Amino acid sequence: MAKVIFEVPAPKNPRWKFWRKALDAVNTSYSNGYAFEGTFLPAGRKSELQAGSLVLAYDEVGSARYHAPEVALLQVSASGRLEPVRDEQGPVKAEGFSWALDLRDRVALLMGQEVQVDTAQELEPPLALLLRDVLVWGRESDMPEALQLRIREALGASAMARVRGVAP
Asked: pLDDT (tens digit, 9 = 90+) per residue, 134-152?
């Protein structure tokens, strides 16, 4: 695709923190803004990127007493405009201090990256609870280690962390 010159959005409120970043990848092992890898762009000035490139726009907005992040994913169009990005959940944007976790996996999927999904989230809740109960019972009744390992893998790490007395 050809490079396109476009206007990088100015900050919504220059009193507070703001930044714009052209995304190269998403590191899903991070749970904060460092998950989004790329090059910072100068807010309020022109820049040049490939058409189709993704730009993350971070702004803190609000009063002097309380201001919080608003973050949106934008895409450079062939006509040189930044368009809001949508996925199956709607516009890819987040508000509040958990913005990075709210957006990380969605953006990674849009960039064609694999996202590790907790298997327990895919299981029906009663089945996940049953597997956890079986694992706890197995620990107390000498269940073979290989079977315990298979159950831990099926549940996923975050589900295991919620099970008292069972190490991942």
From this structure: 767 766 677 777 777 777 7
61-86 pLDDT, tens digit each = 999 999 999 999 999 999 999 999 99
Q: DSSP state, 80?
A: S
What is the tally of helices (H) and strands (E) in the chain?
5, 10
136-142 contacts: CB < 8 A, separation 24 or more?
136/163, 136/165, 136/166, 139/165, 139/166
User: Residue 21: beta bridge partners?
Assistant: 40, 56
Q: What is the pLDDT of residues 39-59, one digit of tens each?
A: 999 999 999 999 999 999 999
Global pTM? Answer: 0.69
Half-sphere exposure of 146 (CA within 13 A, CB side): 0
What is the pLDDT at residue 166? Answer: 43
Q: Using CA atoms, how far apart are residues 45 and 23, in angstroms rounded to an integer?
A: 18
Listing DSSP states for 135-147 in one string gives: HHHHHHTT--HHH
Tell me the CA distances in angstroms from 37 to 25, 29, 63, 103, 119, one per residue in order: 5, 12, 29, 13, 26
Instruction: Indicate the DSSP class of residue 78.
Output: T
Terminal-to-terminal C-alpha distance of the chain: 45
